[in-house]
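Recall the central idea of this unit: under ordinary conditions, the amino acid sequence of a chain determines the structure it adopts. In this exercise we apply that idea directly, starting from the sequence alone.
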Amino acid sequence: MDNTIRHEGVVERIEGTHIQVRILQTSACAGCKIASHCSASESKEKIIDVHQAPPAGLGVGDSVMVSTSGAAAGKALLLGFGFPLLLLLVVVALMLWLGQGEGAAALGGLAVLVPYYIVLWLCRDRIAQSVSFKIDKLLTYKY
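Accordingly, the structure predicted from this sequence is:
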């Protein structure tokens, strides 16, 4: 089974080996036949940064396929959401166990996230090496 996550997109900007691609991120039910009549489906435009040499002939406005491995996506989710949630819960539980009030524990839990996300931002280049995207130009047919 292929464990690759793919999104079709359009090239917005190319600067050396930095390519920005606009994708349309849709919810799971957006492809449903009655999705236009339902408030549960939603879609958002996102800009994805891809760091690789552009494929030959790639230009702004071209349709591309952006992909990443499931493992890379899982790592990004853990770093962005899983570890911060665990850190917040541990700090809140520890502060409550030490006899702090609920308000102080909640503020402590939120406050510990500030240095976490600062460290995450400082390590963004190292993280980008292991959580990266690949871009492939889609073939366009002219009739």
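Residues 37 and 77 are 31 Å apart (CA to CA).
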